[in-house]
Design brief:
single chain, 105 residues, mainly alpha, elongated
Length: 105
């Protein structure tokens, strides 16, 4: 198994976050010391945009998993909120996000 795949074994946890942070730190260090400042700025902008896109994708996956939990366990909105440790409003927002993306397919 390759080293990259080792990170993804088991639940995504601190090791995945640490790996992402390490990559970002290396990129920031290289970009901050770049001789062409405009190119560095453009690269950092691309990095920031890419990271936002990744965060949005992970947030959508979180919402879909919340919807799957609700369906699999036949939970009410209140039951889902309690299980996930959040308010009913936040649970509703997650379910709404998951269903909006499903209808957009």
């Amino acid at each position: 198994m390759s080293e990259g795949n080792d990170i993804l074994q088991g639940p995504p946890s601190g090791s995945v976050i640490a790996a992402i942070q390490q990559i970002c730190d290396r990129a920031k260090s290289e970009l901050e010391s770049a001789s062409d400042l405009q190119e560095a700025f453009d690269s950092v902008t691309q990095l920031a945009t890419g990271l936002r896109d990744i965060a949005d994708d992970v947030a959508l996956t979180r919402a879909k998993v919340a919807a799957q939990i609700r369906e699999a366990e036949n939970l009410s909105l209140e039951g889902l909120a309690q299980k996930l440790g959040m308010s009913k409003q936040r649970a509703f927002q997650l379910l709404k996000a998951a269903s909006q993306k499903e209808t957009q397919k």
